[in-house]
Design goal:
Blueprint: E1 11-14, E2 34-39, E3 57-63, E4 75-76, E5 87-88, E6 101-114, E7 117-123, E8 132-138, H1 141-144, E9 163-166, H2 168-181, H3 185-194, E10 210-214, E11 217-223, E12 227-235
Parallel strand pairs: 9-12
Antiparallel strand pairs: 1-2, 1-8, 2-7, 3-6, 3-8, 4-5, 6-7, 10-11, 11-12
């Protein structure tokens, strides 16, 4: 058996997620957030994606590029379990792995083919801007969807039920920035914050303010037992 293998990226992600904090921890949880997969020159041809236009969804196999030099341990503390219980790394989707490879199913919205190359427009990706893509595969409903599959540690995801409120300043900025970016910004913010990006050990501090990066914006928010408050929305200069 060969000891080592060399893998080359075939595409790169252009995503509104500019830092790791705030990205949904699984794909498909923020369907209104759109990303672009740009094929690199050696792979960017109409022949390489022939037939892909008939797929509703595709798999993206990618590198956790921000974790490549961080190493790994046999056990990790999944945020899903409150950060207090350890599981084996191969029982989780932690990015800190012996080989930092991930996979995400995403919805394929459009394919743009120009003289500059091929771009795939997708929604539901949970990928940081600049993430290298190793491979793209069609999602096959007859084999990739397994409704009988179970895993008691992660059976379902329940979004936060708290009411989302914007301060007057944040609401004004929301309207301005949504128009400038031509994005459904309110829906995107709602999807991200209802996924509760807070660290598990800080969820009992309702006064703690957090910030997430989305597009070129810094969104400051707080979460209490009854509400999600968006305090400010500001461009990152």
């Amino acid at each position: 058996m060969q000891d080592t293998y060399t893998l080359q990226p075939i595409a790169v992600v252009k995503s509104p997620y500019k830092e790791k904090f705030g990205i949904p921890r699984q794909p498909g949880l923020a369907d209104t957030v759109v990303s672009t997969i740009t094929l690199l020159p050696n792979y960017s041809s109409e022949e390489s994606i022939r037939g892909l236009q008939d797929c509703s969804h595709i798999w993206l196999i990618f590198i956790f590029s921000e974790c490549v030099d961080k190493g790994w341990k046999p056990t990790v503390r999944p945020p899903r379990l409150g950060g207090n219980k350890r599981l084996g790394v191969f029982s989780t989707r932690s990015p800190f792995r012996p080989n930092p490879i991930g996979l995400s199913p995403v919805k394929l919205l459009e394919i743009h083919t120009t003289e500059c190359g091929v771009e795939l427009i997708v929604s539901g990706a949970d990928l940081l801007d600049g993430t290298p893509i190793l491979d793209i595969k069609p999602y096959l409903p007859y084999s990739d969807s397994l409704p009988e599959a179970t895993f008691p540690f992660a059976e379902t995801i329940t979004p936060l039920a708290q009411t989302l409120l914007f301060s007057d300043n944040a609401l004004s900025a929301l309207q301005t920035e949504a128009q400038r970016l031509q994005q459904p910004l309110k829906s995107q913010i709602s999807e991200l914050l209802k996924c509760d990006p807070r660290p598990a050990y800080k969820k009992n501090d309702p006064d703690k303010a957090y910030g997430i990066r989305l597009h070129d914006l810094n969104i400051r928010f707080r979460i209490t037992d009854t509400h999600i408050y968006v305090d400010t929305i500001e461009q990152v200069r």
